[in-house]
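Hi R.,

Here's the chain you asked about this morning:
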Amino acid sequence: MTATIGWAWQRSEAPPAPLAVVAWHAAADGLLHRLMEMDDAALAPLQATACGSALVVAADRPEALPWSPGVAYAAPCDADPALWLPTLWVPDVPLDLLAHAMHQRHRRRPLLLWPDPAAVVPLDRMLPASGPMLARIQAHRSGASVEAP
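And the predicted structure, written out as tokens:
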């Protein structure tokens, strides 16, 4: 028998430095457009993944992250770097236990846990950001056929 424990999001008292930008729906379209305008040198430190209506772009340093209207930021959790959380919000339960439960349930690492819209986004398929990779994301988001390079 598995017990379910309720939890809620609360404001982070000490937001970490962001290492990912997260966008949903129209904001994801705007972020994708912004990325497609960037040159190869600006894209070089970035990795990206898309899942449903989400677009997540990560970098190894905050200053490399792009900005676009409507985006939010995320960072790995100190208790378990394979669990990423929004920088401004944190669950009100012990993060090590939550991370363990999330990894047991989803069987993927790393994972982004997001409050609104409530979602778990797998980050294990992040790829280096490049023009062709972004074009595939755009084609997928628009419903066009997607061809491998």
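The two ends are 47 Å apart (CA to CA).

Let me know if you need anything else.
M.
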